[in-house]
Amino acid sequence: MKKTLIVAAVSASFATAASAQSSVTLYGIVDAGFTYVNNEATAQGDANSHNATVRLSGGNVEDSRWGLKGQEDLGRGMKAIFTLESGFDVTNGRSQQDGRIFGRQAFVGVTSNDFGTVTLGRQYDSVVDYLGPMTASGSWGGTFFAHPFDNDNTYHTVRVNNSVKYQSANYGGFSFGGLYGFSNAAGGFASNRAYSAGMQYANGPFKIAAAYLQTQNTNSGNAGGAITDTLDANHLSVGLVPSQSQRTYGVGANYSVGALTFGGLWTQSRFQYDLGDSALRFNNYEVNARYNLTPALALGGAYTYTDVKGSVPGSRNSDHTQYHQIGLQADYALSKRTDIYAEGVAQFTNSDGRYANVYGTAPSSSGNQVVVTTGIRHRF
Predict the structure, then answer these.
(1) Distance CA 178, CA 127 (A)
(2) Whole-structure pTM value
């Protein structure tokens, strides 16, 4: 009997030690509510085909997701890590990201307290990592606050497959990183590849960041390449079709004073097409602010001006379109994990023949569109 107790005690101690050295965590977000859109065209460009819409919608502020992340202590300040993250539509239970099981993120790697982190898999680029948090959409505002068509990917519409990524440790407030996404094509090293780099400096209440992203030959037809996420048909109409190359770069900063955090950002995205030597250039200018009125209630606002120049494949004339977008949000925390929110976003364009299109909705049949949404979000 005593031997049995001793064996059980020793086994329990080994199990406790193993548990302390490694862990796996289940986590996620579920976000759902009601959304009103004042004008959504059933056929773009048809002035007689538009309607107001009220719907039950998911992912109004943050896309619903669930994931697994884990780590194992390797000693000497090093750990093996992994993340598997799946996106889903809470209104119908369907997988997002073109039906992928782990379409949001899927990577494995090694991290060191002194030297940083190296990971391999499907991951976010440096624009998402460094510039995204400087925007309203990439921090507190969410889906409808994204820049028109998410042309600069600050709202992470596109992920990078086949990628190796490095993120440095924090060196006195300075950190940096980079990513390379392989084409994985025999005899086509540059056939649908991507690379990016970014950096950030944080000193007390002040943060500043810069990043760069370039994709090449995403129109090559290489379905196993770095960029395989698809944009829906609404976005194809503005020319964000697979391009010969895309270059996105920008800089952003924010500053906190007590309960107030405010900031600004500039990004430029250039899309080059191989049909008729056509190209599009987006310049995005954003200012945003968020104020914690009480520990539970936060108010936020953002304004984005987007200037678009160039032409798309099949277009005979050069294009110059300007978008103005204003967003306001109120968020109230019921607990540490659950909050309710209400927000409104309005977008206007002063260009004839162009249609407003708040990200996450179908295009308007006119030059303006208003979205109002309210809902509940739970984190686990």
Answers:
(1) 10
(2) 0.89
Range 299-309 burial, b when 16+ CB lie within 10 A, else e: ebbbebebebe
Q: Which amino acid is at 170?
A: N
Weakest-pLDDT range from 314-328, 345-359, 363-377: 314-328
pLDDT digits (tens, 9 = 90+) for 287-339: 999 999 999 999 999 999 999 998 766 555 567 899 999 999 999 999 999 99
Integer Cα distance of 297 and 341 in angstroms = 10
23-379 topology per CATH: Porin (2.40.160)
